[in-house]
TrEMBL record:
Protein name, entry field: U3 small nucleolar RNA-associated protein 25 homolog
Family statement drawn from the similarity comment of this UniProt entry: Belongs to the UTP25 family.
Oligomer and partners: Interacts with CAPN3; the interaction is required for CAPN3 translocation to the nucleolus.
Organism: Tauraco erythrolophus
Gene3D superfamilies (alphabetical): P-loop containing nucleotide triphosphate hydrolases
Main location class: nucleus
Lineage: Eukaryota, Metazoa, Chordata, Craniata, Vertebrata
Start and end residues of each UTP25 C-terminal domain: 525-709
GO terms (BP aspect): maturation of SSU-rRNA from tricistronic rRNA transcript (SSU-rRNA, 5.8S rRNA, LSU-rRNA)
Domain of life of the source: Eukaryota
Subcellular location: Nucleus, Nucleolus
Biased segments, Basic and acidic residues type: 1-10, 77-86, 290-305
Length: 714
């Protein structure tokens, strides 16, 4: 894992080297570009019309690219452009940013304060409010075995902290009925693996009121008649996930699927987050009442019940639509019945800024189901919002230092955390985060993974300012700067990836330990290829993971490309996952004067139409094609006869999708079609997702090229 982790930051590090302080000011300017209609992008007629647009654009594009140097310099010259496009998903999809979004700065008018709700400050203050006596919530939380109290009240010793900081974790395996193969790891030996609860009584989960009564109703949509009467409120997946969450262990679940289980997972972690916040706040309010009633001069050390700053839960999600759904789940979980609606401040504003207009979407775009599920609703990726919850009320747009929960995108976090040297930057509010939830982590690989790494480096640090905290109420764990050892991290992704693994392995220090789901794919996406096609997997030998990038490039230009230079091998699409590899190949193809065209995530619409037309007609022999373009657009590229996967795709189903594009070629099945895949021993996870675990084991043991023939019935 450590080797894979090193590779993980290779691309990110090269991005940060050239990052200037003003990059984000420039970036925010790109959020205001007007969208182009995409309603006809799949129509061949519109392709030819748009392709006929003035060639001056193409000429200027060519002259701009000609200025780029070959070798190591091209990455640097392209990075600012990459930053802008990678960070703005809505730019890829041609959607406007909602009016009044929380833009933190404007290049023309300097810094602008984003909207925060100042009006309800005293109403939601933890310092000046008290537990309502009739609620009885706090007494319920004092029951023996309450996981919240067990976790937060545990006093670590210096030697235990030293052990966690220096010694490697010990791990053990366990198999659960629904989650499958689990790896439990901990630096403290005494934590043994959990056993899966076959049945869960909601009353034994120590849920805070009103969640005990609202959860079964709210979650009803996911339940089937198959659910046992003794376990009426959780799906089998939710039950096992919540069983782990409720022990406050870190969790990595890499099988989230936007089409199948994404929403039931979202409901489960929302229940856990809200349960945590309600218990924490009830403890503070109860102690407020006790302090008010105690005699003057009494020792106050019994009331250490909070962190150095108020935010307890940070939820990282990719799009505004996700934040909208989370807030709706919170509201439904807090409303006991139709008569007892909770008071939600700024709800109308929130709906306007985070909702979407169904009529905005062009009606005749055809995309795969998984694409529609991921890019539903408002897909702006620059936002952050504070949420405060107090008893029967919720405050949206709470200032961060008065918030219990912060919901944000990685870019939204990056622009407030800032970089060294910036005057206006702030990350003190991350000092006492007790639960970090990162959902849909795979999408951040397609946005900008460096933002996630930047966030992880700034979480649970000692604050630079006191922010008016009453130190007599702060837990010793926070004063000792041990917050990171108590923080629970919940990481959900659609896939296993070295960069995601790296965050889980290197940035999570929970004293209770970690649980990772580690199922291996038995088949692979190659079984979904429906065209008859020979697949040749060509192995390249790299001595260490840091040399893979250069080794792959050299292997490609020395061994693979010469076989395709002949005019007979026309209509060759080269699929390139990494943008930096794409730039390197593009510059090499130019230098060698090869007949090629290229499409990446920044190519303008007219340029995309031209490239597709040239490739289809055979006027250009090669098409360089980036993975991010495919992720954000999912166009069908017609005319492919030869495929080269420069590297295995990040999403395994992209492999079969790209292969199946060949059936869009008018001539039908052609005996001369080819598919070539480059891989190394460091690509084990991606390889297994494409060809299955058994074939992967054979391919990694053998040093020969592997030929597979898929008939379309595999």
């Amino acid at each position: 894992q450590s080797e894979n982790s090193d590779k993980s930051s290779a691309e990110s590090d090269s991005e940060t080297e050239v990052e200037q302080v003003s990059v984000y000011h420039k970036l925010l300017a790109t959020l205001r570009t007007s969208p182009e209609s995409e309603s006809e992008e799949e129509e061949d007629e519109s392709e030819s019309e748009e392709a006929g647009e003035s060639e001056t654009e193409m000429d200027s594009e060519g002259s701009q690219e000609a200025g780029e140097t070959d070798g190591g310099e091209e990455e640097k010259s392209d990075v600012p452009e990459q930053k802008e496009a990678t960070d703005t998903a809505e730019q890829m999809l041609g959607q406007e940013q909602a009016d009044g979004t929380d833009t933190s700065c404007d290049p023309s008018h300097g810094v602008i304060e984003e909207f925060t709700d100042v009006k309800h400050e005293s109403e939601f203050s933890l310092e000046t409010n008290f537990m309502e006596e009739e609620s009885g919530d706090c007494n319920a939380d004092k029951r023996d075995g309450n996981p919240f109290k067990q976790h937060m009240d545990k006093e670590l010793e210096e030697k235990e902290v030293a052990k966690m900081s220096t010694l490697p974790k010990t791990s053990s395996q366990s198999k659960w009925p629904r989650l499958g193969q689990l790896t439990f790891s901990s630096a403290l030996e005494k934590h043994k693996p959990l056993k899966a609860d076959k049945e869960v009584d909601v009353k034994q989960l120590y849920l805070h009121k009103p969640l005990e009564s609202t959860w079964p109703k709210v979650n009803k949509q996911f339940l089937s008649s198959m659910n046992k009467p003794s376990d009426p409120s959780f799906t089998p997946l939710q039950r096992e996930l919540f069983c782990i969450m409720n022990t406050y262990r870190d969790l990595f679940y890499p099988e989230r699927n936007a089409l199948t289980n994404g929403e039931e997972i979202r409901y489960a972690y929302c229940l856990h987050a809200l349960n945590h916040v309600l218990k924490a706040n009830a403890q503070v309010l109860s102690n407020n009442a006790k302090r008010r009633d105690q005699k003057p001069g009494t020792d106050n050390d019994d009331y250490r019940d909070q962190g150095l700053t108020r935010p307890k839960v940070l939820m990282i999600v990719p799009f505004r639509e996700c934040a909208l759904r989370i807030v709706h789940i919170f509201i439904s979980l807090l409303e006991v019945n139709d008569k007892r609606k909770i008071d939600v401040s700024n709800k109308k504003r929130f709906k306007g800024e985070f909702g979407s207009d169904p009529e905005e979407k062009p009606p005749n775009l055809k995309r795969p189901e998984d694409y529609e599920a991921v890019f539903a609703g408002n897909i702006d990726d620059h936002f952050r919002i504070g949420v405060a919850i107090l008893q029967k009320s919720m405050r949206l747009y709470a200032p961060f230092y008065s918030s219990d929960i912060i919901i944000a995108s990685p870019l939204g976090m990056r622009t407030i955390i800032g970089t060294e040297g910036e005057k206006k930057r702030d990350f003190d509010f991350l000092s006492s985060i007790e639960i970090l939830i990162i959902d849909q982590a795979d999408i951040y690989l397609m946005q900008n993974w460096e933002h996630v790494l930047h966030l992880m480096k700034h979480i649970n640090l000692l604050p630079l300012d006191s922010h008016g905290v009453d130190f007599s109420r702060v837990r010793m764990l926070n004063l000792n700067n041990w917050s990171k050892f108590y923080r629970q991290t919940l990481l959900f992704s659609a896939l296993q990836d070295p960069q995601i693994n790296s965050v889980f392995n290197k940035h999570c220090f929970n004293y209770v330990g970690q649980v990772a789901v580690r199922n291996v794919p038995l088949s692979g996406s190659i079984s979904h290829v429906v065209v008859q096609l020979p697949h040749v997997f060509r192995r390249l030998e790299a001595e260490k993971i840091t040399s893979v990038i250069d080794t792959r490039f050299q292997f490609f230009i020395d061994k693979v490309l010469p076989e395709y230079r002949d005019a007979i091998m026309s209509h060759t699409l080269i699929y390139v996952p990494s943008y930096f590899d794409y730039v390197r190949l593009r510059n090499y193809f130019k230098k060698e004067d090869l007949n090629f065209t290229h499409i990446c995530e920044y190519t303008k619409k007219a340029g995309v139409c031209r490239a597709r037309r040239f490739f289809l007609k055979g006027e250009k022999q090669f098409l360089l094609f980036t993975e991010r373009f495919h992720f954000y657009k999912r166009y069908t590229i017609k005319g492919i006869r030869n495929l080269i996967f420069y590297e295995l795709p990040t999403y395994s189903h992209f492999y079969s999708e790209i292969c199946n594009m060949m059936k869009a070629t008018d001539s039908g099945v052609d005996a001369t079609w080819t598919c070539t895949v480059l891989y190394s021993k460091y690509d084990a996870q991606k390889l297994a997702a494409v060809v299955g675990i058994d074939r992967t084991a054979q391919m990694l043991q053998s040093k020969k090229n592997v030929h597979l023939f898929v008939t379309g019935e595999n």
